[in-house]
Design goal:
This protein has twelve helices and 14 strands. The chain is an alpha+beta fold. Helix 10 packs antiparallel against helix 11.
């Protein structure tokens, strides 16, 4: 289908983009990679009157460690994550996730900022960012504010961003030594959205005791889900098969998927249990090598 007619603006600076957002309010939408917005416009599920294309704004695509954080600029493409030496060497959870999103063509355009700002529980980065305890930086007319990832996903396709704010950066606390992660995704075919996805990040000491765990779930509820009880259960315990299995059951307890073409709810809940076991086990193996 063809989208409804719209006006198109291409600001060169963030303040200019924010001022356009203020001017046009709910009638405007930010355009980043367009990999979710354009299909929705073609299906007329989104009908913005103004598209504010932020691709010409410089300085919004970077991946760097600074001030204790891994900082990812909102316009960083999935393909940039895959190609980054920093991500490849220190952030396997992010690398796993980027690699499992869609296909190379989509990943050349799709941005990390857009993946989060879209607020789609089927997208993969939200679970990863929940596991990594990220913070989202929103820039608006009054400057920047930080939103913890726990507070960011409000409901289906709705985030804590205000209509006059742009997601400008994602900050992830740099994990200590002995940390690693993994992302597992069940999909009907390569490039599909997740039937179920699980992101796990752990920090273990030299004896294999879990110092910290992060677990995020994809596409098993109206928002991406942080499996907080499972995370708390693991803290201070050995990451052995029995504890991993109990944590996986606690993660499955908070999943509330719908039955649909990707499978019945019961099947998806069992897959959360299974993928949590696999993600924690792989994260542990990787973390043990990171000492
Ligand atoms: C064939 C196909 C397969 C896909 N498979 C997957 C998949 O497996 N996993 C997955 O996670 N995703 C998948 N997607 C969805 C898509 O890749 C992601 O949602 C994408 O990362 C969105 O980023 P974008 O830059 O393209 O956002 P856009 O489409 O430009 O924007 C998406 C939404 O976020 C808003 N927005 C964008 N950037 C900002 C910002 N900086 N600040 C505020 N608001 C903003 C826009 O206004 C819009 O509402 C797929 C898409 C396609 C077309």
């Amino acid at each position: 289908m063809i989208p409804k007619a719209f006006d198109y603006c291409r600001p060169k600076t963030l303040p200019e983009a924010i001022s356009l957002l203020q001017q046009h309010g709910d009638a405007a939408k930010i355009l980043s990679g367009g990999q979710s917005l354009i299909p929705m416009m073609k299906m007329r599920l989104a009908q913005p009157e103004y598209l504010i294309d932020i691709n010409q704004i410089g300085g919004l695509d970077y991946i760097r460690e600074e001030e204790g954080y891994l900082k990812i600029g909102a316009l960083t493409r999935e393909a940039d994550l895959e190609a980054s030496d920093l991500i490849r060497s220190k952030y396997p959870l992010i690398l796993d996730t980027a690699f499992l999103i869609a296909d190379p063509q989509v990943r050349n355009l799709a941005t990390v900022g857009g993946n989060l700002a879209h607020g789609d529980p089927a997208n993969d980065h939200p679970a990863t960012m929940l596991a990594l305890n990220a913070e989202v930086i929103a820039t608006g007319p009054d400057g920047q504010r930080g939103i913890t990832i726990n507070e960011f996903f409000v409901s289906l396709f709705t985030t804590a961003l205000q209509p006059n704010e742009i997601l400008s950066e994602i900050r992830i606390p740099i994990p200590p030594a002995g940390s690693s992660g993994a992302y597992f995704k069940l999909e009907r075919k390569v490039g599909d959205f997740a039937t179920v996805g699980v992101a796990a990040q752990v920090t273990v000491d030299a004896k294999g005791t879990c110092q910290q765990a992060g677990i995020g779930l994809t596409n098993v509820g109206g928002t991406p889900i942080k499996a907080t009880k499972a995370e708390e259960f693991l803290r201070g315990k050995a990451l052995d098969a029995s504890n991993i299995s109990q944590a996986a059951s606690l993660a499955a307890d908070v999943a509330h998927p719908s039955s649909d073409l990707r499978g019945p709810a019961e099947y998806k809940i069992s897959m959360v249990r299974e993928l949590t076991k696999r993600a924690l086990t792989k994260a542990l193996n990787r973390a043990s090598q990171a000492h």
